[in-house]
Amino acid sequence: MGLFDKKGAGVKPASIPSGPDDPGASPDVAEDEIRIPAALFDGLVCGTLLVLGLWFVVGALRLPTSNAAFDPGTFPMITGSLLILLSAIQIGLTVSSRGARGDVVFQRPVWLGIGMVLIVAFPFAVEAFGYYIVAVIWVPIFGVVAGIRRPLSLVVTTAVVLLLAKGVFEMLLGTPLP
Amino acid sequence: MIENFIQALGLVFTIKVLLALVSGVLVGYFVGAMPGLTSSIGMALLIPFTFGMEPIPAIVMMVTIYMAADYSAGIPAILVNAPGQPAAAVTAFDGFPMSQRGESGKALNLSIMASGAGALISGLLLVLSAQLMASAALAFGPAEYFALAVVGLSLIGVLSAGSTLKAVIGLMFGLVVVTIGIDPIRGSERFVVDYLLIDGIPFLPALIGLFALSEVFVMLETANQKIMPIKHTPSASASFRALAPYKATVVRSSLIGYFVGVVPGAGASIASLISYGVAKNLSPTKDTFGTGNPEGIVASESANNAAVSGALAPLLSLGIPGSASAAVLIGGLTIQGLQPGPLLFTNNPEIPYSIFVALFVGLPIMVVVGLFGARLWVQITRIPRPIIATIVASVSMLGSYAAANHTFEMMVTAIFGVIGYVLRRCDIHPAPIVLALVLGDMLEANLRRAMITANDNFLTVLSQPITAVLIALAVLVLVSPMLGRRAAK
Q: What is the rounded distance in angstroms from the CA atom of residue B367 to the CA atom of residue B357?
């Protein structure tokens, strides 16, 4: 088994189908999935948390100190140290029981990755271009990524989101959207 | 007391006040069901509308918004794992798995019945013990608040569905994250890499990311899955019967909710967490909690609705808000020229008694709207998953923006959504992180205050009577699952 085994590649490439009549239009088609050994995935996540804990501990050491038992850095130092310790224990356990948890399977990995990028990009785009311009473009694109294939569904979903934004958030609740 | 009640009944049963009451319930339902919009935000947004109103309809409308919003926050938590308010996050633990099994109707009906029962029991407690309880809550100093936070954190053992080690890692992650921002005692900046982080990580957007957006990512993966057919939604009478096996849980959770709600600053989220933890601990089927056990919904919803009346006790009798929503209500009372506190019962007894009557009159309206609405709301689960994912993602972003009218909140939601998803795939669930985000500040700030008061002597802090009892309770909560497992072997 490779590090990132692909299953289903060659069955049907994950592509945006042309329309609802296209057999590939249904999101029910077989799509790629990525399998990562759980030991490796857990190790990567806990390793990241360990580094994060280290960053907090180093940052806490640089905070002002006094004669008091609890300084501004004491609490983050304790919790950061515990995060380092527990993450290290988890990495140790993961290595010693390698393969026990099987694989972590990511289905529709390409769509998932694009979806994450779209979500993270959304606030920056709203800040740069304003909510409505971004929403008119972003919502249908995210809809396609989520698996909506019928153009009418995309239009209705976009309209629902815009109506909620204008009617509920702006008009009823007085939230000024950028 | 009886005379005041009779007078209040006459004042509430007028067209104007009843209209305000029904409007309050409907607005509360709406505000609570929108992720990101809390009851306090809804009440604050509607304060300008109360300027021209008479005091009683204005106050009744605000109180019913508060009550209904606390219930309806459980609706999106059950249907799409997107809690409308922080306290409803606990309802999602079992509500969403039930919804995934096609039992969304049963889950929604149970949640409204449990909410109604919680509101009824706590309403009675409020009437009988408002002044007494509020005085007792005043005995809480930093040491007691620190101990209360420790009790909350000790629930980690019962809240962890899988590996306890991973749950504690999640807890520590939350506890380090919560230290970002201004130090609560000295005012020094801690880990502020950008000025936007000066106030720390905003809780509500982080919560929306951890629950709603991480669920959106799961939906992106599972767009191919068939929609689970909806099972029969029970009738109102069947819902009453469905609640019957959980009578003890309802009473216990309502008591927990009320008493935790009385303590200023503790609030519905802590009430729900403690109540859920206790219910799980005492249940013979504790392993099924977190996988769709109806008792989990009952425990959470009874407690968070009971906390509403609890928060009103110190507000009415001492002028101290027990929650953010109660603080907004104080603003509403002040605008009407009323001063909450001991003199309110003497100078304007019609106000507190009208609030008591409004709680009891608004309750059946809330339950009826909830029971009839359940059949409509479960239809949401029939909408194809890709459409739900798109709408939930969009509304989550809008809701987090509305929390502070700033795109920074959206960024926090997006980042915590990705973090929440990655951690979930590593079997580190959002519950322990939320526990830390709720209690982290309370734990650190009160421990440090208590240490200053006790001249840096930790034993002095622990030797306060209420603190000692609460710490002993925390130890009991922490070790009881282990003892239970050992006894089972």
A: 16
Interfacial B residues in 414-433 facing A (CB < 8 Å):
414-415, 417-418, 421-423, 425-428
- The residue ranges of every structural domain in chain A are 33-107, 108-177
Q: Which tokens sit at B339?
A: 């001063």
Query: Is the pTM value of this prediction over 0.90?
Result: no
Look up residue B362 and give its two tokens.
């608004």
Per run of 10 residues, the mean pLDDT along chain B (length 489 residues) is 78 86 85 72 69 81 86 84 81 89 86 90 85 68 86 71 84 94 90 89 85 86 68 68 87 90 74 88 85 91 89 75 73 77 74 86 86 74 83 87 86 94 90 81 90 88 88 80 60
Is B185's Cβ below 8 Å from some Cβ in A?
Answer: yes
**DSSP helix/strand/coil, A37:** strand
Binary contact (B169, A83; C-beta < 8 A): yes
Q: Tell me if chain B has a CB within 8 Å of the CB of A41.
A: yes
DSSP B101: T
Size (chain B), residues: 489
Give the DSSP H/E element, type plus range, for residue B465: helix B465-488
Count interface pairs A-B at CB distance under 8 A. Answer: 189
First to last CA, chain B: 55
Between CA B381 and CA B364 the distance in angstroms is 26
Q: How far is CA B342 from CA B8, B133, B189, B263, in A?
A: 18, 13, 39, 17
Write the single-letter amino acid at B126.
L
Torsion of CA B204, B206, B207, B209, to 10 degrees: 120
**How many Cα atoms sit within 13 Å of B274 on the Cβ side?**
30
Residues 88-127 on A with a CB inside 8 Å of B are: 89-90, 93, 101, 104, 106-108, 111-112, 115-116, 119-120, 122-124, 126-127
Q: Is A51 on the interface with B (CB under 8 A)?
A: no
- CA B385, CA A147: separation in Å to the nearest integer? 8
Q: Which residues of B touch A94 (CB under 8 A)?
A: none
Q: Are strands A5-7 and A33-37 parallel, antiparallel or unpaired?
A: antiparallel
B227 at interface of A, judged by CB pairs closer than 8 A? no
